[in-house]
Automatic annotation (TrEMBL):
This is Little elongation complex subunit 2 C-terminal domain-containing protein. Residues 413-426 have a biased composition (Basic and acidic residues). It comes from Bracon brevicornis. Residues 136-161, 377-426 are annotated as: Disordered. GO terms for cellular component: transcription elongation factor complex. InterPro entries: ICE2_C.
Length: 426
């Protein structure tokens, strides 16, 4: 496939605003030929079957499914998700296929705007028809000395408008944390075939080509500072970088009120992991335990189609449903679940916290620390007047008292002068 050329606008003194052209964005990213067309499912990808013929693989998963599993770092994870899973047999061995997670039924306004700006940003900075766009086959040949254990088999052509890469990783149990109940279990290593997609290729100063994934970050509190990435966002970005060799992340901070680009942040898997540790006191590697447990459970299932669903009530666990024609209380009806055409909005989204370690251009201009604000000029909360106001009030009182005393003395003098005349008249 073709990797689009990434051209980021230079942020100088002038404003850089992203134009929003809804018809062109819909034509480029949402132009499906058929109403129920499947979009390059991993379970139906002929490239994956070709690789399975010559490699021992336990799990075949898309990058979307991988990020969905990796985002469950917090046991109180409140977002709901559904993963379609297919268990097949290849050469007498069961292989688990995990496709892209199903669309959300509802979401808060921040998540909705972030999802929309992902396509707005891609449409503005990615140029697939640029004369410097990179062919994925040529790029892999030029970087063939990578130490990653990925397959180099000749595969059929990639699906239309795709630049898919296929890499095999080994997930072992030796480095994962174990509790008392897992000490007597027989652990094994699992081979994972991950299909990933690169957003764009950026030309570096030394004419090197750097593969990049884009992540918009909307800023709603620009006067205070940069909003911190959520644990879900950071864990997804860590998984994207960890399982995409030689790829970096460009986080674009955008003002959603006017679509202005504020600044660019370049991140690696190590720097994103440091953010997770600093902000939430957890590690990105902790998500590998979730992925390992998922593979361990699903490889024991019989061949067939399954649904793995997580809801708020499940907490750190998920439910597994197998395809059936039966009906009942314990049956999950996907048609009924997605029968509502309205994409509902969850009210009262959580208030984003400010990242005190991120310095924005506004802080450099006003020489202000992050999370600081302009001092208020209103009366303090304790209703005490400032010292200057107290001095002014005392001076005004003294001046008014002096004026009253002068008026009284003048009135007394005028009364004394009138008293002799009145006595003579008598």
């Amino acid at each position: 496939g073709i990797i689009p050329r990434l051209i980021l606008p230079k942020l100088l003194k002038r404003r850089i605003s992203i134009p929003i052209n809804a018809p062109k964005i819909a034509e480029r990213y949402f132009n499906f030929q058929e109403p129920f067309q499947t979009k390059n499912l991993v379970s139906e990808d002929p490239n994956c079957e070709k690789i399975l013929e010559s490699h021992e693989v336990d799990l075949v998963i898309s990058s979307s499914g991988l990020k969905c599993l990796a985002s469950n770092l917090d046991p109180s994870y409140k977002n709901s998700w559904i993963l379609p899973v297919t268990v097949k047999e290849f050469n007498g061995k069961k292989v688990v296929f995990v496709d892209k997670s199903l669309p959300l039924v509802n979401s808060n306004i921040i998540q909705k705007n972030t999802w929309v700006y992902k396509y707005i940003l891609k449409h503005h900075v990615l140029h697939p028809n640029h004369n410097t766009s990179v062919n994925l086959d040529d790029f892999e040949d030029a970087n063939g000395d990578s130490d990653q254990d990925d397959s180099s088999e000749e595969c059929p052509s990639s699906p239309t408008n795709g630049n898919f890469s296929y890499n095999i990783f080994t997930l072992g149990a030796c480095g994962l944390p174990q509790n008392e109940m897992m000490k007597n279990k027989v652990e094994r290593d699992f081979n994972i075939l991950i299909r990933t997609k690169i957003d764009g290729a950026e030309k570096m100063p030394k004419k090197q080509i750097q593969c990049v994934i884009l992540a918009p970050k909307l800023e709603h509190q620009i006067t205070l500072g940069a909003e911190a990435v959520t644990l879900e966002e950071a864990s997804r970005q860590w998984a994207s970088l960890t399982f995409r060799p030689d790829t970096s992340l460009v986080r674009v901070r955008i003002n959603p009120t006017n679509s202005d680009i504020i600044q660019y942040e370049r991140r690696t898997a190590v720097s994103v992991n440091n953010e997770i540790k600093r902000l939430y006191n957890v590690k990105g590697e902790d998500s590998l335990q979730v992925i390992y447990n998922f593979i361990e459970v699903m490889t024991k299932m019989k061949p067939g189609k399954y649904i793995v669903r997580h809801t708020i009530r499940n907490g750190a666990f998920a439910s597994v449903y197998k395809e059936t024609d039966a009906t009942g209380k314990k049956v999950l009806d996907l048609q009924a679940l997605y029968s509502d055409e309205e994409f509902r909005t969850i009210p009262n989204p959580p208030w984003p916290m400010i990242d005190k370690a991120v310095v924005m251009p506004m802080h450099e201009l006003f020489q202000r620390m992050p999370a600081m604000f302009y001092p208020g000029r209103k009366t303090p909360l304790n209703n005490k007047k400032p010292l200057v106001q107290k001095k002014n009030a005392r001076q005004l009182k003294k001046t008014a008292a002096k004026k009253r005393n002068v008026i009284k003395r003048n009135a007394k003098k005028s009364g004394d002068e009138k008293s002799p005349e009145s006595s003579r008249s008598e």
